[in-house]
């Protein structure tokens, strides 16, 4: 545990380390407001989380929910809601935007430890107070994380309650039930676990027998399916008592969620959606049109924005079309962000946002009278002269800049409009 420090006042200078500025600022605010929180799982790749490459899973004291919401709002961190088949009790989804790096960072805010099998998360472990009271401060990143001994207990307990007959069969001949990334996480935690501390923390939560089985699992290799089953059966109180659904109520819910997730995936593949996120805007979706003269790069910018947003939120990209298809309006009404390559002037309803790419030739073109083969201003292709109602936000971007700069400005404009 050399990289961790016990809890203490944050009265010394922050350690310089690789991280996005918005992430550092967010946790500084949490510390200044004395918010009880910690990143409770997957701390093995905390470095990647600080750079926005992976998500944060923050356990927060529910009594701090109101001040946390205030901090997030002040820092322009936006709340999104996932589709019902992906929702879990006590979990909220937020996305923040680092303006310097033009990167999105996803925050899972957990007000309770909702865990369990894939697609359902049908267990709630009432161990939040233990996790928060034993949290530790990461020395390099200055962020509170779970005690490695507690995180190890949580990792094994989560794996134990996830076990299903189908999973056991699919695991088949594999030496470990864990996937490779979890095996790596287990090995990382095992190097920091202190045997006696692990036993002392686990006994009140799972009982003497299960605590000793847990201590025996800690080693160079991840536990087997048989060890996980034995841990689950020996836990006191019984882990089954932490179910949030009955056995017969959980099964149809899980099947329905799994089928709906598969349909969502197929639908996104059919419409060539670059990502598969189901997070939508709670206040309603946004229709964004990227317009510009030929050669301004609107198709490339529209595609890049859709790929960027789809990492974290539900997006529907629409290629150049004579009219806006009805599915685009339905997607917007369902809370998705719709990105259109161009905007047909025949469309009766206006977009919510227009990102207009201007090139130097636009000004000269406007000053020069039309030639015999040119169309007069107001033609459908002359997007620079289209007028939009006051309800439409129009953002002008100089397309003569380097592509990276144009894309960065477009990302800022889109994020400010969501």
Protein topology:
Elements: E1 4-5, H1 21-32, E2 37-39, H2 46-50, E3 56-60, H3 65-74, E4 78-80, E5 91-98, E6 103-110, E7 113-115, E8 123-125, H4 128-133, E9 136-138, E10 144-145, H5 148-162, H6 165-171, H7 180-190, H8 195-206, H9 208-217, H10 225-234, H11 247-270, E11 286-292, H12 298-309, E12 315-318, H13 326-333, E13 337-341, E14 353-358, H14 360-367, E15 393-398, H15 403-417
Parallel strand pairs: 3-6, 11-13, 11-14, 12-13, 14-15
Antiparallel strand pairs: 1-9, 2-3, 4-5, 5-6, 7-8, 9-10
Helix pairs in contact: 5-8, 5-10, 8-9, 9-10
What attributes characterize this protein structure?
418 residues; alpha/beta; 2 domains; 15 helices
Kindly describe this structure.
With about 425 residues, the protein is α/β, with parallel strands linked by helices. It has two domains: about 5-240, no CATH class; about 275-415, P-loop containing nucleotide triphosphate hydrolases (Rossmann fold), CATH 3.40.50.300. Helix content is about 40%, strand content about 15%. The strands form four sheets. It has a five-stranded mixed β-sheet. It has a five-stranded parallel β-sheet with strand order 12-13-11-14-15, sandwiched between helices. Strands 1-9-10 form a three-stranded antiparallel β-sheet, with no helix packed on it. α9 packs antiparallel against α10 (about 225-235). It is elongated. It starts with a strand and ends with a helix. Residues about 1-15 and about 360-380 have low confidence and may be disordered.
């Amino acid at each position: 545990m050399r990289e961790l420090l016990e809890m203490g006042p944050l009265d010394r200078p922050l350690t310089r380390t690789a991280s996005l500025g918005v992430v550092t600022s967010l946790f500084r605010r949490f510390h200044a407001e004395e918010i009880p929180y910690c990143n409770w799982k997957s701390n093995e790749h905390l470095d990647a989380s600080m750079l926005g490459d992976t998500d944060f899973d923050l356990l927060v004291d529910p009594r701090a929910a109101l001040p946390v919401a205030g901090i997030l709002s002040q820092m322009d961190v936006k709340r999104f809601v996932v589709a019902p088949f992906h929702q879990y009790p006590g979990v909220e989804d937020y996305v923040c935007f680092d303006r310097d790096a033009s990167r999105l960072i996803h925050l899972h805010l957990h007000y309770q430890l909702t865990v369990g099998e894939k697609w359902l998360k049908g267990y709630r472990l009432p161990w939040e107070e233990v996790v928060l009271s034993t949290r530790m401060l990461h020395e390099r990143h200055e962020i509170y994380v779970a005690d490695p001994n507690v995180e190890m207990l949580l990792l094994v307990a989560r794996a134990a309650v996830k076990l299903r007959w189908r999973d056991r069969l699919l695991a088949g001949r594999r030496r470990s039930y864990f996937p490779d990334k979890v095996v790596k996480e287990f090995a990382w935690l095992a190097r920091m676990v202190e045997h006696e501390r692990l036993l002392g923390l686990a006994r009140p939560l799972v009982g003497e027998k299960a605590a000793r089985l847990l201590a025996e699992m800690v080693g160079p290799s991840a536990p087997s399916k048989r060890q996980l089953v034995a841990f689950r059966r020996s836990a006191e109180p019984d882990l089954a008592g932490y179910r949030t659904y009955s056995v017969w109520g959980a099964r149809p819910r899980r099947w329905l969620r799994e089928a709906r997730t598969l349909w969502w995936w197929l639908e996104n593949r059919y419409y060539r959606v670059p990502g598969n996120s189901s997070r939508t805007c709670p206040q309603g979706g946004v229709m964004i049109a990227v317009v510009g003269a030929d050669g301004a790069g609107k198709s490339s910018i529209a595609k890049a924005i859709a790929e960027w947003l789809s990492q974290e939120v539900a997006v529907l990209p629409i290629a150049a079309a004579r009219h806006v298809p009805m599915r685009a309006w339905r997607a917007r009404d369902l809370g998705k962000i719709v990105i259109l390559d161009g905007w047909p002037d025949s469309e009766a309803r206006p977009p919510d946002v227009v990102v207009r790419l201007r090139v130097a030739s636009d000004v000269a073109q406007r000053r020069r009278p039309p030639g015999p083969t040119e169309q007069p201003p107001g033609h459908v292709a002359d997007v620079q002269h289209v007028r939009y109602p006051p309800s439409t936000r129009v953002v002008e971007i100089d397309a003569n800049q380097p592509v990276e700069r144009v894309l960065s400005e477009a990302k800022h404009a889109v994020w400010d409009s969501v």
